[in-house]
Design goal:
Leu-rich_rpt, six-stranded mixed sheet, U2A'/phosphoprotein 32 family A C-terminal domain-containing protein, about 15% strand, alpha/beta, LRR_dom_sf, Leucine-rich repeat, LRR (right-handed beta-alpha superhelix), two-stranded antiparallel ribbon, about 170 residues
Amino acid sequence: AVLRLSIHSMEGREIVRLTENTVLNKTRVDNLKHVKNLNLWGNDLVDVSLLQQMPNVEVLSLSVNKINSLQDFGHCTKLQELYLRKNNIGDLQEVRFLKPLRHLKILWLCDNPCANASSYRPYVIWHLPQLQKLDNVDITDNERQSVRRLSEDDIANMAQRGDAPAPKPVV
């Protein structure tokens, strides 16, 4: 089955956007609010703003796409598992958009440019203390304890090692 994704040209680049029809056809539900699990691996998606209309989604698999921001995920407050390997998330500070996701237990961000930062793992664990697994590696008690000792200044210094400005938190 071929998925219909909306493609828009922006400054000579194609932007592949997630559409309501795509999600409803893939999940076989009648309303975006009923979506619990969505797997759209490898679809060259860039624009996933439609996620803002899926507050009840629990598992999202959007690996191997072209997503460059985590902002739209902050609206999926029931999210428990988020798979975003091999996307274009470059700024480690994007992780702050996931702070409202108190139920998030599993996060995969490996193979994104942000995961190359030396402070990647402690930075993510500090901002998302409820995580149990990061990139398919269990978060140990020792790791949690060492991250808890970091101050807000330590975390801010980690974030400043990146080039992009800090994102505005989701309200």
